Every structure is written in C-alpha cells, then in structure tokens.
Amino acid sequence: TTYTDPNGKTRTWESAERATRPKDSLVDGVGIVAVLEKRTGPEIVLQKQFRPPVDKVCIEVPAGLIDAGESPEVCAVRELKEETGYVGEPMKGGFGISPVMFNDPGFCNTNLNMVHITVDMSNPENQNLKPELEDNEFIEVFSVPLKDLYSECRKLEKEGYAIDARVGTLAEGIEIARKWKL
After folding, report:
1. Which of 166, 155, 164 is nearest to 58 (CA)?
2. Do 48 and 164 meet the contact criterion of CB atoms below 8 Å apart?
3. Were both Cys, which of 8, 64, 99, 110 would link to 79 (CB 3.0–4.6 Å)?
4. Is the pLDDT reported for residue 94 higher than 90?
5. Distance CA 39, CA 149 (A)
C-alpha cells in the first residue's frame, strides 16, 4: 500500500487486504464470546484449530465471516451452531455486540464485531452437540471456566499452542479486572 505520511512524504507499507466483506456490511465477520451457563459457574467456549500462517494449533473463540444481508448477531448464532453445535442467544442490554474492531490494523484491513452469546445448558439442543463443519474445518471444541481463562492460556501456551489475540486479550481483561478490583 502506498500512502502519504503527515510530512507529505510518499511511503510504502506492507499489508494484506480481505476482499470478501459484503457490500452491505461494516465488518468482515464476527468473533463469538459464547458463555455456557453452568451450575458450577460460567464457562467460555473455545476451539483448537490448526492455522497454516503460524504453523500451530491455535486457541480461538468461535468465529466466522458474515454473509451478505446478515447482521453480526445472526452470523454469530449461525457460526456458533455450525462450528460447535451450541445454540445460544446474543446478550441483551447493549452488551450483545462490540464496536467494530480491527484485528491487526498495522498489517491488514480485516475487522469484526465481537458478539456476546449466552448458552442455556438446560436447553436439550445443547446436550448431544452436532457441529456442522465445512470440509476445510477441523475444529476441536472445549470450554474453560471464565475465572481460569488466564491461567489456562498460560498452560496451553506452555503445551505449544498459539493463543489467538482475542482470547488472550479477554483473559488479560479478566485478570486486570481481578487485580484492580474493578
């Protein structure tokens, strides 16, 4: 990409561009913070998925690209069901969807909304899960108590997994809130 800096000098910046964003959408896709409502406390749904650019299995939240005409909330519910088998609902009260977030603005234009979804574990649909993976998706689904997310990320990293920035940032946020008693 060529651009002009604040001093008027033309510069070149190495970057990538996602070209799949629907014309009627502000975002490329969604990241899904799916929280299982369990008697033992809330747990976050995570995935293990091999990612060729880092040549590692990554620990990620469910996510996916938005389809034309689809809202982020509808996309999140669809992707959660497809990738994990869970059926959930976006949270209400203004916390269901994040502002538009850019994944790596120093390198690419990819952006998303994080959609916060609650999963009612008493719902019979959330018992014998049946993900509907695409033929190029190889995903292992697991959950972690939210209170243990940071320590679990540390443990998984020591085991050789790559921690997706969204998962790591969420874990850091929980730890910051705990440390400063927010």
Report:
1. 164
2. no
3. 64
4. no
5. 18
CA distances from 77 to 28, 45, 47, 83, 138 (A): 16, 13, 16, 10, 19
Average pLDDT over residues 123-143: 95
β-strands 162-163, 56-60 pairing: parallel
Q: Which alpha helices (H) appear in the chain, and where do they start and end?
A: 72-84, 149-158, 165-179
Residue 101 carries which side chain, given as an amino acid letter? M
Residue 68 is encoded by which pair of tokens? 């034309």
Cα dihedral 163, 165, 168, 170 sign: negative
Q: Are 83 and 1 in contact (CB under 8 A)?
A: no
Q: Whole-angstrom Cα distance, residue 174 to residue 168?
A: 10
Hey, what are 58's tokens? Answer: 């990554």
C-alpha 44/C-alpha 86 separation (Å) is: 12
